[in-house]
Amino acid sequence: MGKIIFYEDRNFQGHSYECGGECSDLHAHFRRCNSIKVESGNWMVYERPSYMGYQYFLKEGEFSDYQRWMGFNDCVRSCRMIPQHMGQFRMRIYEKENFGGQMHEVMEDCDSIQERYHMPEMQSCNVMDGHWVMYEQPQFRGMQTYLRPGEYRNTREMGMGNDEMRFQSMRRISSDAAF
After folding, report:
1. If you placed Cys at 10, which of 23, 34, 92, 176 could pair as Cys (CB 3.0 to 4.6 Å)?
2. Are 112 and 72 within one domain?
3. What is the rounded average pLDDT of the residues 10-34?
4. Is residue 157 part of a domain?
5. Judgement on whether residues 121 and 78 belong to the same structural domain of the protein
6. What is the pLDDT of residues 110-159, one digit of tens each?
7. Domain termination residue (choose one: 49, 82, 115)
8. Does residue 13 sit within a domain?
9. What average pLDDT does range 158-169 have in this prediction?
C-alpha cells in the first residue's frame, strides 16, 4: 500500500490529510495544498476532481512547497497511486490522431520524440505494457500526463482535454526511475 499526506500550508504545516489509495475528490478533506509527503509508492496528483486538469507525478519524498513539484497553483483535487509494474514496458506511438501517420514502438524512456523518431509530435498511442508519464516538452519538461495500459486515440483521451496538446518526451514509471 502507498501513503501520501497533503498539507494545507508550506513546510508540512496546517491541516493535513493522509491518503492510502485512489481518491477522485479530495475537496472535502482540505481547501488547498501547499506541501506533500509521499511516504510510499508512486502517485499522480491532479488539479481537478475525477483525475482531470494539470497532473503531477510524485515519488517517495518530501515536497515542502507546491512550486517544487511543478505546481501551477495550490489546488489538488484528486490523486491515484500508480501500481508497481515489474514486467517489460511497451507502447506504440503515432504521429497523428486515431493511430495515423508514422508509428514507432517504444520500450524505454525517450527525451525527444522529434530527435529520436523524426516525428514532430505524438497525438495518439497504444500502451501495451507498463505505466508511463508523457511530457509536453523535450527533456521531460512541461505538463505531464499519466498513461496506463490502453488505447488513446487523441490527447483528450489521454486526459488533457485540449486538442492542441502534443507530447514530445516520455518516461517509464518503475521503481528505479530517475524523476
Report:
1. 34
2. no
3. 94
4. yes
5. no
6. 999 999 999 988 889 999 999 999 998 999 998 899 999 999 999 888 87
7. 82
8. yes
9. 74
Question: Domain limits at 164?
Answer: 90-172
Taking CA 168 as the corner, what is the angle to CA 163 and CA 174, rounded to the nearest 5 degrees? 110
Mean pLDDT of the chain, nearest integer: 90
Cα–Cα distance between 79 and 97 in angstroms, integer?
A: 27
Report the alpha-carbon distance of residue 40 to residue 118 in Å, rounded. Answer: 38
Is residue 76 domain-shared with residue 104, that is, in the same domain? no
**125 to each of 33, 70, 95, 121, 138, how far by Cα in Å?**
32, 25, 9, 11, 17
Name the pLDDT band for 18 (thresholds 50, 70, 90): very high
Give 109-163 as a DSSP string: -BS-HHHHH--S-B-EEEEEES-EEEEEETTTEEEEEEE-SEEESSTTTTT---T
My answer on whether 68 and 132 are in the same domain is no
pLDDT at residue 77, as a whole number = 94
> In this structure, how many other beta carbons lie within 10 angstroms of the beta carbon of residue 2?
20
Average pLDDT, stretch 21-45? Answer: 94
Instruction: Answer with the one of 54, 82, 110 that is the final residue of a domain.
Output: 82
C-beta separation of 73 from 88 below 8 A: no
Query: Has residue 41 been placed in a domain?
Result: yes
- Could you tell me the CATH number of the domain that includes residue 139? 2.60.20.10
Whether this prediction's pTM lies above 0.90 is answered by no
